[in-house]
Design a protein that fits this description.
This protein is 36% helix and 15% strand. By secondary structure, the chain is an alpha/beta fold. The chain has a single domain, classed as Glycoside hydrolase/deacetylase (TIM Barrel), CATH 3.20.20.370. Strands 1, 2, 5, 6, 7, 9, 10 and 11 form an eight-stranded parallel sheet that branches. A two-stranded antiparallel ribbon has the order 3-4. It has a two-stranded parallel sheet with strand order 8-12. Strand 3 and strand 4 form a beta hairpin. The relative contact order is 0.19. The model has no long low-confidence stretch (mean pLDDT 95). The protein binds zinc ion. The site of zinc ion has 5 residues, from loops.
Length: 311
């Protein structure tokens, strides 16, 4: 596929989807303060579930029912950050609660989520676990990786966790495969794409896998930054800003700050994930995933997963 021209004569595009796992007041904000100073607007995800029996702040992180956490998230939105969806909560919720969580998201942020990613431990994950893959790879995945069949059933009609129709109606882009290289468009030139075998998701996007701080530092190394600029591609980093980016006194890891500052001086288009995907979709539409492209993504991702682990 031909390289895309980026707005304002920028040479490449860059974004981050921050998975909200572990995030609670004090352990992630310094990353955003640095991004903000660098002029980079990205995407921060949340768990908007609300109701009895749910924990606003705990070991897993905070939900939007944590008033202090929510205050900062709303401030991020005011500053131009996209708020994304990371399933309703950190454990599985039934359809009624998922619908309430989506309503709550709309109430808090003014619209339905544009982007989402599945949370590994939410049973209502959509086409997740072995369902990310087609046979025979799904069987291989069950044998080698998964906790058992049927662990993610958000797309399975008849399950109490089913919410596929809500996802189709209310969410534009869902993250799927992650890869080890910085240029996500080179890893997945078809994104955003619709997979006719997974109809409840309107469009999927891929990402550059940087699970924790150490992975992020590797992904954004000087050599990788220069390669991204040279390729003219687009990078969507998938990471967890609450995973070791910020120390106990609230200070951002020095190497992360140094790398973000360096990247920000390059002629990149630094926008939230939803803005980036909307731009690509407006230029060349949502592509329909072919069987050959699906096979290429699935094999490469499974190899990455077996080598690197989570993601
Ligand atoms: Zn997660």
């Amino acid at each position: 596929m031909a390289a895309l021209p980026w707005p304002d004569g920028k040479r490449f595009a860059f974004s981050i989807f921050d998975d909200t796992d572990l995030a609670r007041p004090g352990n992630y904000e310094a990353a955003y303060e640095c991004l903000y100073r660098c002029g980079m607007r990205t995407t921060k995800s949340v768990w908007p579930a609300t109701g009895p029996g749910l924990e606003p702040r705990g070991r897993e992180g905070s939900t939007c029912d944590d008033a202090e956490y929510l205050r900062y998230v709303l401030e991020l939105q005011r500053r131009g950050y996209e708020i994304g969806y990371h399933n309703a909560y950190h454990t599985g919720l039934h359809r009624g609660q998922v619908e309430r969580a989506l309503d709550r998201f709309r109430e808090l942020f003014g619209h339905d989520p544009v982007t989402m990613s599945n949370h590994a431990l939410s049973r209502e994950g959509i086409y997740w676990g072995a369902a990310r893959l087609s046979p025979p790879l799904s069987t291989l995945y069950r044998l080698l990786v998964a906790r058992g069949p049927g662990s993610h059933v958000g797309h399975v009609v008849g399950s109490p966790y089913f919410w596929g129709d809500l996802c189709q109606r209310r969410i534009r882009y869902v993250r799927n495969f992650v890869f080890g290289r910085i240029d996500t468009l080179a890893s997945c030139p078809w994104m955003p794409y619709h997979d006719p075998a997974r109809p409840y998701v309107n469009a999927w996007y891929a990402a550059a896998h940087a699970q924790h701080c150490a992975h992020f530092v590797d992904m954004l190394s000087e050599a990788h930054q220069d390669a991204l600029e040279a390729s003219g591609g687009a990078c969507i980093v998938y990471t967890h800003f609450a995973a070791e980016f910020v120390d106990a006194s609230g200070r951002l890891h020095a190497r992360v700050r140094q790398l973000l500052e360096r990247l920000s001086r390059k002629p990149g288009w630094f926008v939230p994930v939803g803005t980036l995907l909307d731009y690509i979709a407006a230029r060349r539409g949502i592509s329909r995933l072919s069987a050959a492209a699906r096979q290429s993504l699935e094999w490469r991702w499974l190899a990455h997963k077996l080598l690197v682990g989570a993601g």
